[in-house]
Structures are given as structure tokens and as C-alpha cells.
Design brief:
Elements lengths: L2 E13 L5 E9 L6 E12 L12 E8 L2 E10 L5 E6 L4 H12 L9 E9 L6 E14 L2 H23 L1
Antiparallel strand pairs: 1-8, 2-7, 3-6, 3-8, 4-5, 4-7
């Protein structure tokens, strides 16, 4: 059974002189023991409105898999130019990213690093005249928790049912 979570934001604004660098749009926490990310879909409307040179590979939007603050894998999902554009990304149709992201997830030691997130963020370069503006940002993540998670849930529900039945008899 897959778990679907989403993040949306109305807009972000980054300026070379004020707040260049990484800016988090949002994050999703994965359930303990998640063993596969089935899909990540993103959509973002973006533009580099600065008067400086443009570089869609540097002024861009990313999705990253993080264990605590350590980034394990990064995917560039959109790159800005001086023309406004809406760009989408679908992990399921990118076999290399799919395989490498899930390989990074497989390497996790959940008992040592139980806090794992998928983060949606922008990276604006701090060069003179560069800006990055986004709007209508969205990210949807479909993942598969560890099967033991469901076993524990069912056991807990069964225990609650047994306690409730015992209370009725008393």
C-alpha cells in the first residue's frame, strides 16, 4: 500500500544581494522504514528575472533525499531562464533517477538515522544581477513504507479491539 503526501507553495523570491543559495519550499517526512519511493511529481512556474547572465543549471529547483541534514541524493527538476515557463518532472519516467534515488534509500540505516525527508527547494546563484522567482510550486511523493509498519498497526488495532471487548464483558 503506497502513501501519498504533497507540498505546495504559492511563490518564492530570491535575489543575488539578499537571499541567494538554498531556499526550502517544503518537505515531506518519510515513514520509518520506507523501502521505496514509487514516484515524485513536481510542477513549478519559474523565471530568472535578473539582468545578469542566465544559467538554468545553476538557478534551479531541486528535490533532495535527506537523512537529517545530510543530502543523500539530489534531482534537478527545473531550471530558470529569462523566459517564464512551467516545468514538470516525473520520477517514474526517469529510470536513472528512480534507480539511484531508491539505491540511496536502500543504503539508509533507519535505526541510526530515523528522520528521513524529501525536500523541495530552490537554489539561486549569488552572482551580480541574478534572481530566481517561482510560483505555483507543487511536489507529490508516493512511497511504500516497510511492511512491518502495517503489521504493527494491525496488531495495535487488534489489541484495542480485544481490550474493548473485554471491557464490555466486565
Amino acid at each position: 500500500m503506497a502513501v501519498t503526501q504533497s507540498v505546495t507553495a504559492s511563490s518564492t523570491d530570491q535575489y543575488w544581494y539578499q537571499n541567494a543559495g538554498l531556499f526550502e519550499i517544503g518537505r515531506i517526512s518519510l515513514q520509518y522504514g520506507t523501502n521505496e519511493i514509487l514516484d515524485i511529481d513536481t510542477s513549478v512556474r519559474l523565471v530568472d528575472q535578473g539582468w545578469g547572465y542566465e544559467s538554468p543549471t545553476e538557478n534551479a529547483v531541486y528535490v533532495g533525499l535527506f537523512s537529517g541534514d545530510a543530502e543523500l541524493y539530489q534531482i534537478r527538476v527545473a531550471g530558470a531562464s529569462h523566459e517564464i515557463s512551467t516545468q514538470t518532472y516525473d520520477l517514474a519516467s526517469n529510470a536513472t533517477d528512480y534507480a539511484q534515488l531508491n539505491a540511496a534509500l536502500d543504503q539508509l540505516n533507519w535505526s541510526s538515522y530515523p528522520y528521513v525527508t524529501v525536500r523541495f527547494y530552490t537554489h539561486a546563484v549569488g552572482y551580480l544581477g541574478w534572481e530566481l522567482h517561482t510560483s505555483n510550486d507543487s511536489m507529490i511523493v508516493n512511497s511504500v513504507p516497510e511492511p512491518g509498519t502495517y503489521g504493527m498497526l494491525l496488531a495495535g488495532l487488534g489489541l484495542l479491539g480485544a481490550c474493548a471487548g473485554r471491557r464490555k464483558r466486565d
